What we know:
Elements: E1 4-8, H1 21-26, E2 30-36, H2 41-46, E3 59-72, E4 79-96, E5 103-117, H3 120-125, E6 133-137, H4 144-155, H5 198-201
Parallel strand pairs: 5-6
Antiparallel strand pairs: 1-2, 2-3, 3-4, 4-5
Amino acid sequence: xSQLTQSAASAPAFDLRExxxxxxxxxxxxxxxxxxxxxLPRILAETAPDAPASxxxxxxxxxxxGFVREEAVAPGAPVSxxxxxxxxxxxRVWLDCQRCLTVYPEPIATQMRFxxxxxxxxxxxxxxxxDELDVLVGxxxxxxxxxxxxxxxxxxxxxPKHVVCPVVHESLVTGxxxxxxPEAAPEEEKRPSPFAALAGLKTKH
Length: 205
C-alpha cells in the first residue's frame, strides 16, 4: 500500500488528498513530509521506461506553509485578509537523456508562493506581475497532493539531458572518422515551462 508520510506543526489532521486550504492558511499551518512517485500518476507516466525498479518507490520531500497578511486598502478602511501558501518540493525523476539515450536522474528542487483565493473570478482579477507569486483557487476539500504533482511537472525540462553525457549515442554525433566525439558541457539552459497548460490547473478546486 502506498504511504504518504508527514509531520505537522499546527495541522495534525492534515490530509494531502483533501483539506480545508482556507483554514490551513488562517491557522498558519506548517506541514512537512514525503510522497512516493507511485502516488503521483502523472509523474509516474513521465518516468523513463528503463528507470530502476526502485523509481516508483522513491520519494519527493515537500513542505507546505500557510500564512495570512492583513491589509487595508486605505487609512481607516476595513482590514482584509490575504491567504498564502508556500510550497517546496525536492526529489528526482528518472528521464531518458535526449543526447545519449540513456536513463538519468533529473533533480527537482522547486519552491513557489501562492495566494489562495475563493473563486475563479478573484483569480482572474489578480495581478500577474510577480513571477514568484501565483494564484490558487482554494476549497474546503483541496488536494495539495495534486498541487505537489503540478509543481514537479512544471520543473521538468523540455529536453531532458545529462549536464555532461557519459557517451554520446553514435546515431546522434559522429566524427569525421566515424568515431563518437566527446560531449562538451552545455551551457545551463533557461527554459519555458514544459507544462504551461498546468497553469490553468492551478485554479482547480
